[in-house]
Amino acid sequence: MAKTTRKSVSLAAGITALQYSEALAKYAGNDARMNALTSEMDEEITAIREQYDDDLNILAKENEMHLAIIKGYCVQNRESLFVEKKSIATIHGTIGFRLTTPSLKCIAGTNWEKVLAKLKEKLPAYVRTSEEPDKEKLLADRASETVAPLLTELGVKVSQGENFYIELKKEVVQTPQLA
Fold first, then answer.
1. What pTM was estimated for this model as a whole?
2. How far apart are alpha carbons 69 and 73 in whole angstroms?
3. Residue 179 pLDDT greater than 80, yes or no
4. Where are the domains of the chain?
C-alpha cells in the first residue's frame, strides 16, 4: 500500500476564479472516483467473505461442540486436573478456570431502589450524589431575560464556531478537460 504524508493546507492569497473552478471540479471528480473505488472494493470484499462463509460457519459450529466437550471433561474432573493451579498446560495450549470481575447483583425479591433506600439509612457513605450543570438547558435558555444577563457572571460564554464545507451533488460528475 502506498504511504502518503499529510500536509497542512494553508490558504493562499490571489486565487483566481479559474483556479477555484478547476479545483472544485477536480475535487468533485476525485470524490466521485473515491466513491466508485470504495464501492468496487466493498463488492470484492463481500465476494471474498461469501467464498469463505460456509467453511467458517462449519468450523465455528464444530468448535462450539468441541468446547462443550472440553469444558464438560474439565468440570467433571476438576478435582484431579486442577489440584495445584486453576489452569493446566497442554500440547495445544493452556486451559483452566479464572474468576470473573466481581459484581453486585440484587437478591431475589429486591431491586436497586430498595437497596438504595437501605443504603441511605445504614451506609450513607456508599450512596453517590451527582450534581452537574445542565448545559443543554442553559444553551436552550441562553437568550432568555433570566439567563442571558447571568452567563458572564456565572463564568460561562456561548461559543459557536464556523466550519467551511463542501456538499457535493452525487450525480455523475464530469471533469472539464483542461487545455
1. 0.56
2. 6
3. no
4. 17-142
